[in-house]
Amino acid sequence: MSAVADRQPALRVRDPGELSEIALRLRRKVIEMVAPTGQGYVQQGLGAADLFTVLYFAELRLDPADPDWISRDRLLLSTAHNTAIFYATLAERGLVPVEGLPGYCKDGSPFEVNASERLGSVIEATCGSLGQGLSVGIGMALAARRRGDGARVYVVLGDGELQEGQVWEAALLAGSLGLDNICLLIDDNRMQVEGHVDQVVKLEPIGGKFASFGWAQHIIDGHDIPALLAALDGARMTAGKPTCLVVRTLPGKGVPALEGILAHNLKLPADVAAAALAALSSEDAA
Fold first, then answer.
1. Domain residues for 191?
2. Is the residue at 165 inside a domain?
3. 93 in any annotated domain
4. What counts of helices (H) and strands (E) characterise the chain?
5. Pick from 75, 117, 131, 241: most CB atoms within 10 A?
6. What is the CATH number of the domain that holds 152?
7. 197 Cβ partners below 8 Å, 6+ apart?
8. pLDDT tens profile 214-259
């Protein structure tokens, strides 16, 4: 019996309402983690909360009791600075201790601003230098294909990272290999350090570029949970080619006063943090 056939420890929450509630909790946790220092990757975290919720609670085959399980699905955070939402999600899923989250970005804490393997094997690779995640993911996907255990690899990439040439070399290879057990998720929030991505290097048509490299591609509203579920289902059923999901997210999503503000490393004074938490609490009440 295969490793997959006798062990299926996926959580598989499929109810959009339940997933929305989890995403709301994660947004609150992002604010709480960043508030003590008053500066951090708030906008990206709020924007990607729905995506991370669907990945970790509906899609990835994981076992918190055995994080090194060989046949687990892998997720690589190529945008390795987007850690507030990443760590909050890992804690909610039971993969890291929630008690460690207050150490976020503090000296000596493994909850560093850039996710690294200091936190443990739950970090599949240290990708602090942008543009590397897809290359690493391809290696993992090839190994999984050789093992034949059904494991899949997911890579979360920022749209600004598409300006790195290494991404396109990796995309060309994955398409050439027909690597259908890898799914690339581009967090398309239109934001990088210098501002709007088009002020640096124009990216469109993102999906068309990947299609020309032999990928299946879909453009999705990153806050439409049923659409995210359906797209990931489709990626799993796509044979003979890798899948690229261009996930359009809104920086600051869930906090009206922050929505749409393109601040790569947002300053979050105490009064703004309190107002953000109040807004998220009001959303829960609604």
1. 16-285
2. yes
3. yes
4. 8, 9
5. 75
6. 3.40.50.970
7. 159, 160, 163, 190, 191, 203
8. 999 999 999 999 999 999 999 999 999 999 999 999 998 999 988 8
Q: Which position has the token pair 């290879």?
A: 173
Residue among 203, 178, 176, 209 nearest 190 (CA)? 203
Partners of residue 75 on adjacent β-strands: 154
Give me the number of domains the chain comprises: 1
pLDDT, one tens digit per residue, over 31-54 is 998 888 877 788 889 999 999 999
Helix residue ranges per DSSP H, the chain: 16-34, 42-54, 83-92, 133-147, 165-177, 206-212, 225-237, 270-285
Contact at 8 Å (CB) between 249 and 53?
no
User: CA 212, CA 235: separation in Å to the nearest integer?
Assistant: 17
Helix axes 133-147, 165-177, angle to 10 degrees: 20
CA distances from 121 to 140, 154, 204 (A): 14, 16, 35
Query: Quick one: which of 150, 215, 213 has its CA closest to 185?
Result: 215
The one-letter code for the residue type at 73 is D
Q: Are strands 74-77 and 153-158 parallel, antiparallel or unpaired?
A: parallel
Selected residue with higher pLDDT from 249 and 198? 249
Nearest to 125 by CA among 146, 153, 145: 153
Is residue 226 within 8 A of residue 16, CB to CB? The reply is: yes
